[in-house]
Amino acid sequence: MVHGLPHITRDMLLHGTVPAWSSGFDDWAADTLARGDVDELASYATHAPGMAYAHPTPEHYLPIFITLGTVQNPEQPARAVIDGYVAGLAKRSFQLH
Questions:
Q1: What does the alpha-carbon distance between residue 30 and residue 51 come to, in Å, rounded to a whole number?
Q2: CB 3.0–4.6 Å: which of 17, 53, 60, 73 could bond 3 by disulfide?
Q3: pTM of the predicted protein model
Q4: Digitized pLDDT (tens) for each residue of the chain, 97 residues in all
Q5: Where are the domains of the chain?
């Protein structure tokens, strides 16, 4: 869920420290996906906390909309199938039906 590779620090790599920008973005995304709030997901640039760090450029975030476009009801809540952190970056993955 988080692709802030340019912002990885030594503490993140060695100690698994999770910075607020990573957990904040992940919490926002998890809540928004669980509610099926497509409009909020589309407002990521101004609503998602930590966006500048979590996704310094949007091409790693925008595929969410390709996934949402493949389901019959994109507003159906997503189910988290992977969560947690690696090197401080959220690894959340979700599934839609």
A1: 14
A2: 60
A3: 0.89
A4: 898 999 999 999 999 999 999 999 999 999 999 888 999 999 999 999 999 999 988 898 999 898 888 888 767 788 889 999 999 999 999 888 7
A5: 5-95
